[in-house]
Fold these 3 entries.
Entry 1:
Amino acid sequence: MLVVNQGEKVKIKVKVNGVLYERYVSPRMLLVDFLREELGLTGTKVGCDTTTCGACTILLNGKSVKSCTIFAVQADGAEITTIEGLSVDSKLHPIQEAFKDNFALQCGFCTSGMIMQTYFLLKENPNPTEEEVRDGLHGNICRCTGYQNIVKAVLDASKRLRT
Ligand code: FES
Ligand code: FES
């Protein structure tokens, strides 16, 4: 078990979107705050801060996680992908295109978490049914859209990624 004196910071190394970072962090710092405040990756949002809404979803070593649920120190040595890591050469990722084309967002606050969860869902299951999409996104809350267009966007993205 890691023992740290009060006020002491801990060195961590993480690879985020392909870039290696070394930083000293408070042991109590949440991963989402590390990404936003230390690395300036503010595409990852904080909605509830209590593992409920999914706005903070990222990929940690290839698995989708709610980054408000873990401490930055627990990510030491990990590979992380955030929403900023999906587009290549300023070109939107096909999932981002599908969300845009299907009007799957209104305020956009949930969108980066939805897209990261979709990325994971489609990696695990490239051709999901509507029911599987709804099930795969059940940990991500949207207060605006009613979900219909989000589900349409995910099904559309699955087609785009398979052709
Ligand atoms: S901010 Fe992490 S689940 Fe809501
Ligand atoms: S688009 Fe506003 S919360 Fe989902």
Note: The two ends are 48 Å apart (CA to CA).
Entry 2:
Amino acid sequence: MARVASGHDSGQATLAAAVQRQGIGLHSGIVTTVTLRPAPAHTGRVFVRTDLPNQPQVPAQVAAVDQTLLSTELRQGEATVRTVEHLLAALVGLGVDNLYIDIDGPELPLLDGSALGWVEAIREAGTVAQPEPAPALTLAQPITLQQGDAWIAAFPAEAPRLTYGIDFDVAAIGHQWFSWQPTADPFAPDSFAAAIAPARTFGLAHQIDALQQQGLIKGGSLDNALVCSHEGWVNPPLRFDQEPVRHKLLDLIGDLGLLGRLPLAHVVAYKASHRLHAALAQAIQRSALECPPGAV
Ligand SMILES: [Zn+2]
């Protein structure tokens, strides 16, 4: 794979062949089959609800964000697609710009709770370069957003960098900070595929009942999510020392993927959520539209 998500001006890429994965959705509990298909330059990433009449399309763009309760859901007309963030993170992380994502139901499979299954699918299909340039996404000025004690900020920078902090009142998680930037070598030990993609979804044992009563996490299990109690991890071992914060960073990459590419910015998030991630993506898009590169 020649190119990764540097965020800099460079050519685009799509998959070399179609590839398929199947699995259960975290919140709906519905099993869906997803087929990733090559798409022409400038298509972007487009979901296709193959189970609905006329196979409506839902573009993976900021404008399509519908709701962000514990996952990111997109909508175009009546068609929705839920929990898009892990697949989008893998596509951003491995530099796949253009793709049709056929799905025969309302929610992406959670797989093992990480983005590893999507990374493996992309590598199985292979990627192909598309010579058309993709413009870099720049910020005219810093952006900060706050919601209670959670916040997210983006500072203009020469290259994308992401830093995440979390603070949970369970001893096994506690305070964690992690910082990451895209690597030139997609196989490097600190690459997206090695350092971020394997980090799994996690949850707190004492919140599970309440979430289930709200009709959420119907597809969640100890096979696809790390569960933490006040006594420690219910289903160890962890894949990394800081697997929870790495997973939050994975979610952030996926949500920023709604911009197409990572912006040329240092994004710092603390105790943030899909809602704040999506709000930042919207603010970055507005900023980029108001002040396109070269217009300064
Ligand atoms: Zn996630």
Note: The mean pLDDT is 93.
Entry 3:
Amino acid sequence: MQSFALYPFDPPGDTVALRTDLRAWLAANQPTDDVVARANCWASFDPDFSRALGAAGYVGMTLPAIYGGGDRHPLERYVVIEELLAAGAPVGAHWIADRQTGPLILRYGSEEQRQRYLPGIAKGELYACIGLSEPGAGSDLAAVRTSARETSEGWRINGQKIWTTGAHLSHVILALVRTEEGSERNAGLSQLLIDLDTPGVTIRPIIDMAGNHDFNEVFFDDVLVPHGALVGERGQGWKQVTAELGLERSGPERYLSSHALLVALIDAAGADPDPAVAGLIGELTAEMWTLRQLSMSTAAKLAAGEDPMVEASVVKELGNAFEQDMPRRVQAIVNFDWDDEDDLARLLRALLIASPSFSLRGGTREVIRGIIARGLGLR
Ligand SMILES: Cc1cc2nc3c(=O)[nH]c(=O)nc-3n(C[C@H](O)[C@H](O)[C@H](O)COP(=O)(O)OP(=O)(O)OC[C@H]3O[C@@H](n4cnc5c(N)ncnc54)[C@H](O)[C@@H]3O)c2cc1C
């Protein structure tokens, strides 16, 4: 990549009507108005909400109808998730299954896996988690050591995953494992879909510094899963995972995590804002708009069946910088007391604590910059 490929964002159908219908649906079904919950929306688990959203046709939108999906275009889905995130809807329960596990099963999975998992995902009832990171294999994913050995009964899995968001509330983990004994780096890796209630799987909570339980350690102690748990081709796990990361890195969730703060700032500023506050609102809006264009063209490139790894990394890096800086920029300009209880202060408190993690999840800043540099031919 020498320049950012700007693909036109051109979804089929009437997207204005799609947005209007969804906004009306959200007005009738949004379970909470709490501003802090809204800011953390893609980590907020609410199975009732996910089920209702699925029944309304807003989950599994791009999956084929034969598997219970909506047969919609990926860019129609983009419009829907943008609306959901901007509204702060609690989409955490089905988020990972809808965003990446479902599409990955559709692309690489067997017919049996598609029939078994996709209808539940499309209903907003089946939740998945991402089994990539391990102690010693976070940024350096090719150092994965969790092993799966093929036996006559199936795959025997031993090892440990870490930082697994939502494992304690999910049904399945899509794990990157080493299936070829003696293999090194990114060769010999495969993906397995492991039901989390299989004997030998232990899930231990990791509580973050805000006191939340999102993360877990997942241990595999001689876990036996059927041969049919292999997703895609044996030994091709690296290729499949990098395709998955393209889906993970470029969506609107990479710049909208602090969106509720911008809305609260505008509300607090009132009709006659302080000029410095008005200036900041203008800057943040312009930056967000630019990020949105980059994210939408990356989505269009993905929808065209291409692999925009570098563009997705640019969106993630710039989006994370934006959503991470926003709380600090707002804190620098408004009268903020740590003990205040108004919406703006509560949001600032929550985001100042949470935002350092924004540039870690999905790949750290240094690693993402390395991918961009390679894409630009600089290393
Ligand atoms: C909110 C959140 C949710 C997450 N959810 C999941 C999940 O659901 N599933 C999952 O598998 N993982 C998840 N992760 C883990 C996340 O993907 C890893 O934390 C991340 O990839 C970094 O790995 P690490 O923590 O092992 O850090 P390390 O790899 O140990 O890195 C430590 C530091 O060294 C730097 N570094 C490492 N290698 C290089 C290099 N080659 N060049 C320059 N600098 C380098 C890193 O940038 C970082 O600053 C989540 C993390 C967060 C914060």
Note: Residues 275-303 form the longest helix (29 residues).
